[in-house]
């Protein structure tokens, strides 16, 4: 856990990590790659803001803002993202507008992978790890409920949450499948594939304080193996020239740049540098003595203090 020191230290943070137990790697391992470490630590110790995404399949963002502000809520749009609002009050999900599917509550960071994917109306799109459906419903909105959106989720309980959100937000162009992502059938090809991969989830530490001590090394290695299999299958499911977005909510380079670099070294694929409307850091090209492809510098690392959200990693990859 993070503990506040009673007295500031010159040149360092006033927040200290407790002694780590077992083989947990701890967030200190990222000290050298996270800019403005003190602000990162301070932000990680504060509650997440409430953020909602207007469901443009049902309502214009301006109309949603008007309806909620008439009920006493304060909505502040994010720069360049007129459909994403920070809400100063935390009870907005108890409104009828939420139950009617007029908006979806999510961290601001979680809206960015679909922005990087840039799905278009009429396309064939695969969301390989779809539950609980935040990104799936955002993709459907970008596609204007047209084309084909395959939402894949192998876990039965999580699939129920996915189906519930697809129904609540009036998604009509989605077909739900239940394959293990790395075994998704190769018969169909897609214009775009999103892999929001299972990960060690360190970037969600603001809502899961137990993650402040980091994941175990064994967990990171196990997940990195799964992620490599997922990204290979995602690539194989793309049409020539298709786009794959690989995202996580972890800081671990083994699960981020190393996975992308693995794909680049084994397939005809290239990273397309991201131009996101919110602050972020570039991908790193080396970690613990391992060199990655220089192209991974075009990926995006998002830290909680960038815009008061969760942490994450995003890569946009084009198949040759």
Give the SSE map.
Layout: E1 2-4, E2 15-17, H1 37-44, E3 50-54, H2 61-70, E4 75-78, E5 81-87, H3 96-99, E6 103-105, H4 112-117, E7 124-127, H5 134-142, E8 148-152, H6 156-168, E9 174-177, E10 190-196, H7 217-236, E11 238-248, H8 257-266, E12 269-271, E13 281-282, E14 286-287, E15 290-291, E16 300-302, H9 304-307, E17 312-319
Parallel strand pairs: 7-8, 7-10, 8-9, 10-11
Antiparallel strand pairs: 1-2, 3-5, 3-6, 4-5, 11-17, 12-17, 13-16, 14-15, 16-17
Helix pairs in contact: 7-8
Task: Give a quick set of tags describing it.
globular; single chain; 4-stranded antiparallel beta sheet; 17 strands; Rossmann fold; 3 domains; Alpha-Beta Plaits
Write up this protein.
The longest helix has 20 residues, at 217-236. With 320 residues, this protein is an alpha+beta fold. It folds into three domains: 2-44, no CATH class; 49-106, Sun protein, domain 3 (Alpha-Beta Plaits, 2-Layer Sandwich); 108-319, Rossmann fold. It is built from nine helices and 17 strands. α7 crosses α8 (257-266). Strands 7, 8, 9, 10, 11, 12, 13, 16 and 17 form a nine-stranded mixed beta sheet that branches. Helices cover 26% and strands 24% of the residues. It is globular, with a radius of gyration of 20 Å.
Report the β-strand fraction as a percent range: 15-25%
How far apart the termini lie comes to: 45 Å
Spans with pLDDT under 50 lasting ≥5 residues? Answer: 1-22
Number of strands: 17
What class do helices, strands and sheet pairing give? alpha+beta
Q: What is the CATH topology of the largest domain? A: Rossmann fold
CATH architecture of the largest domain: 3-Layer(aba) Sandwich
């Amino acid at each position: 856990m993070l503990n506040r020191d009673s007295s500031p230290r010159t040149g360092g943070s006033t927040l200290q990590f407790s002694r780590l137990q077992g083989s947990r790697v701890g967030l200190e391992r990222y000290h050298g790659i996270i800019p403005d470490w003190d602000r990162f630590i301070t932000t990680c110790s504060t509650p997440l803001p409430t953020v909602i995404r207007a469901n443009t399949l049902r309502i214009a963002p301006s109309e949603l803002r008007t309806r909620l502000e008439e009920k006493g809520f304060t909505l502040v749009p994010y720069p360049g993202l007129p459909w994403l609002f920070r809400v100063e009050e935390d009870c907005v999900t108890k409104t009828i507008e939420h139950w009617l599917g007029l908006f979806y509550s999510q961290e601001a960071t979680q809206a960015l992978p679909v922005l990087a994917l840039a799905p278009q109306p009429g396309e064939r799109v695969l969301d390989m790890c779809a539950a609980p459906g935040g990104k799936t419903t955002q993709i459907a909105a970008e596609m204007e409920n047209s084309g084909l959106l395959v939402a894949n989720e192998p876990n039965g309980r999580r699939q129920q949450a996915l189906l519930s959100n697809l129904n609540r937000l009036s998604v009509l162009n989605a077909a739900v499948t239940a394959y293990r992502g790395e075994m998704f059938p190769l018969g169909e090809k897609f214009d775009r594939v999103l892999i929001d991969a299972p990960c060690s989830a360190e970037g969600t530490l603001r809502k899961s304080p137990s993650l402040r001590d980091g994941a175990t090394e064994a967990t990171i290695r196990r997940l990195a193996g799964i992620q490599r299999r997922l990204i290979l299958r995602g690539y194989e499911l793309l049409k020539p020239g298709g786009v794959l977005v690989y995202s996580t909510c972890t800081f671990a380079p083994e699960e981020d740049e190393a996975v992308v670099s693995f794909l680049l070294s084994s397939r005809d694929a290239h990273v397309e540098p991201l131009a996101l409307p919110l602050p972020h850091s570039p991908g790193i090209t080396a970690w613990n003595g391992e060199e990655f492809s220089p192209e991974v510098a075009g990926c995006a690392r998002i830290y909680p203090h960038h815009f008061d959200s969760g942490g994450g990693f995003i890569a946009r990859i084009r198949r040759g």
